[in-house]
Write a structure and sequence with these properties.
Helix content is 68%, strand content 9%. The termini are far apart. The chain is α+β, with helices and mostly antiparallel strands. The chain has a four-stranded antiparallel β-sheet with strand order 1-2-3-4, covered by helices on one side. The protein is elongated and about 135 Å long. The longest helix has 70 residues. Strand 1 and strand 2 form a beta hairpin. The chain contains eight helices and four strands; from the N terminus they run H-H-H-E-E-H-H-H-H-E-E-H.
């Protein structure tokens, strides 16, 4: 009889995992745990190493594959995805053993707490949306790193263009100095003109050295973003890819509302907070604890008992406070979504103005100011040389 009771206890313990599996909520057929991966767009195959004349596409691909911030965001998304499977499981069962000292009486108790099905469903749903939020955050991090790489690359190109322009100015100033020296030797020009030109040349040389030196911290910043070796040489880009705005403002605003990663993340935050609201409301529901107790002694007398217990959610004020807190969090997340859309719309307006203003200035300089300046320079050179 005693062995039969013990066998019954062990059978009950063995059946607990099957009971736990039956208690797991399912979302449709196979949608209980959707696979969540970071929402990172397809990128070219990253090069294993970079040369001094690496293209912008190579730098972007290398950053996407090696930047520690991007890797960290992807790993966090993977870690949060694992929380979904954790939310599905029941708490561990409890096994208690009691031995009386006054008599040879032993008691074995196995218990399992079964949370209310609504609690498990809400926990899984909250973990699911949180995992998708982490995946979207990885995409935001990737976009930010790509922006940093592009900005530094374009700044380096601008440094190279400024150095080239200043060196052209130096060549022009040197030729003017040679003319002034020839005039001075002929007794036509005063030495003051030569001294003024030499002062301007000294200033120009200093500006060229400063501009070239400015490229070093920019290159260091780019290496840090790429997680590239400190001795990697980065040359000034000879050219940058031409980018034209192909969408109208209305289409761009629609793209912000539907496809912008930050808007998507804010929307996922709203869904996460709503799931946590359901979780807070489920906290006041009753949980069930099932226990089996077997007791025997040396005399062969024993007893078995089956117990069922429930928690008593008596402190309603605490549960109501949890629900109010969750409702406030949902409202805050919804306001943050609206604020994000408004802020991105404002930034879009500023960016479009800068693009249109730059296009107007390019047209002005290339169409009239640069040709007029070239003609004026030729006239001045002839006048000074006369």
């Amino acid at each position: 009889m005693r062995n039969a009771r013990r066998l019954f206890v062990w059978l009950f313990i063995a059946a607990l995992p099957m009971l736990a599996a039956c208690s797991v909520p399912r979302y449709g057929d196979d949608r209980a745990l959707p696979e969540v991966t970071p929402a990172v767009s397809a990128t070219p195959v990253a090069p294993t190493s970079l040369g001094p004349n690496a293209s912008l596409a190579d730098l972007l691909a290398f950053a996407s594959a090696h930047n520690p911030g991007i890797q960290s965001a992807k790993l966090r998304a993977t870690a949060d995805a694992e929380k979904m499977s954790q939310a599905r499981y029941l708490p561990d069962p409890m096994f208690d053993f009691e031995q009386a000292f006054t008599e040879s009486t032993r008691k074995y108790t196995v218990s399992q707490m079964f949370p209310n099905i609504a609690k498990i469903a809400a926990a899984v749903e909250a973990a699911r949306w949180n995992a998708e939020l982490s995946a979207q955050s990885a995409e935001i991090t990737r976009n930010r790193i790509r922006y940093d790489v592009k900005r530094t690359y374009f700044d380096l190109y601008l440094v190279g263009k400024r150095v080239a322009l200043m060196e052209e100015d130096r060549k022009l100033m040197t030729s003017v100095k040679q003319i002034a020296e020839a005039k001075y030797k002929a007794g036509i020009e005063d030495v003051t003109t030569i001294l003024k030109i030499e002062v301007e040349l000294a200033k120009l040389d200093n500006d060229i050295r400063s501009m070239k030196d400015m490229a070093h911290p920019m290159a260091a910043m780019l290496r840090a973003t790429l997680d590239a070796p400190a001795d990697l040489e980065i040359s000034l880009p000879p050219r940058i890819p031409e980018v034209k705005l192909t969408h109208e403002e209305i289409a761009l605003r629609a793209m912000i509302n539907s496809g912008n990663p930050q808007v998507k993340a804010s929307d996922l935050m709203v869904k996460t907070e709503k799931a946590m609201l359901l979780q807070a409301r489920a906290e006041k529901k009753v949980d069930i604890t099932v226990a089996l107790m077997v007791q025997d002694n040396a005399m062969g007398n024993g007893m078995s008992s089956f117990m069922v217990g429930v928690n008593l959610p008596l402190y309603r004020g605490r549960y109501e406070a949890m629900e109010r807190q969750a409702m406030a969090s949902v409202a805050a997340a919804e306001r943050e979504l609206v604020d994000m859309r408004n802020m991105l719309g404002s930034e879009l307006s500023s960016a479009l103005f800068e693009v249109r203003d730059a296009e107007r200035r390019i047209a002005l300089y290339t169409g009239s100011l640069v040709p007029l300046a070239a003609e004026s320079l030729k006239v001045s050179e002839k006048s000074f040389a006369a």
